[in-house]
Amino acid sequence: MMVKTAILIINWNNSFDTINAIKSILHLNDTALFLLDNDSQDNSVEEIKDFFSTNSIKYSLIRTNEADGYRYNEEKVVFVLSDSNKGFAGGNNVLLKCIIQNKEFTYAWLLNNDAIADNLALNALIYKMNEDDRVAFVGSVILDFYKPELIQCCGVKYYKYFGVSKLILKNVNWLSLDKTILINQNADFQQGASLLVRLSALETIGLMDERFFLYFEEQDWQYSAINYGYKQALAPESIIYHKGSVSTNNKKHLFFYYYNKSAMIFAKKHCSLFVRNIAVIMLCGITIIRSKLYIKSILFGFRGILEGYFTKL
Fold first, then answer.
1. Nearest CA to 222 among 234, 235, 236, 208?
2. Distance (Å, rounded) from C-alpha 137 to C-alpha 92?
3. DSSP SS3 for 24
4. Average pLDDT over the chain, rounded to whole?
5. What is the mean pLDDT of residues 257-284?
6. pTM (two decimals)
7. Buried b (16+ CB within 10 A) or exposed e, 98-115
8. Kind of pairing, strands 156-159 and 59-63?
9. In the chain, ranges of CATH 3.90.550.10 domains
């Protein structure tokens, strides 16, 4: 049977990056693009449609209320318009529901709209996935878009007593790195900027928890999968060039709010009461240090901690 991959990209007020991301994957065989606009308030939708028209790319245009019953018909592009901003988890869930019901695809590849995929990125992800049928998630090596010799991450480690995650090998020079060390990094999860998902596993694992609006959603997803005997892995030959932090760029207070809120929801789901109470204290201190004493960021960060801690599960 032919392996078919659905590529999922979400746009929000950033058609320029989204179009460049699309350009990097449209040539791939045995794939279809499922693109969701997350209720952009700029001209994104028209600009993306113009790109498709100018390049003679046929696409189906539907709204989120049509996605559940959508029948895929071998289109290269399915463009879904959302009537609200559903965040990363909610937006991808809309697309995943659309894909799963059609039974045409083996894998879904979540790709950030501010990322550019190397020509061999997807093949390397699939090759790694095929090595072990208990692997449900495979991530890429994420390099800095502006300084491609530098690593953004090769997987992520979670520090539960601090309530934060750390990108593995961040800012290490990729060109001079001994690639054999990637085999033993032992990441806790793979970053969602480029994440291949085994669709058959979702029948057991389920979709992403939409209480995570930004940050920690893919971490929660992969942690939940462990409970069902699934694993995650890094594909060292899969390379992605990623800008990063576009959603909250120039709005650092929102980063602290969303990150801290999601961090506490995650701790509440996966850690003991003792651990998450320590994490509250540590995350408050980390927020003060990271914010460089910027009062607005501190206040938004503390608000995120409180809202996340008291979120009902």
1. 208
2. 15
3. coil
4. 93
5. 96
6. 0.92
7. bbbeeebbbbbbbbbbbb
8. unpaired
9. 5-141+178-238
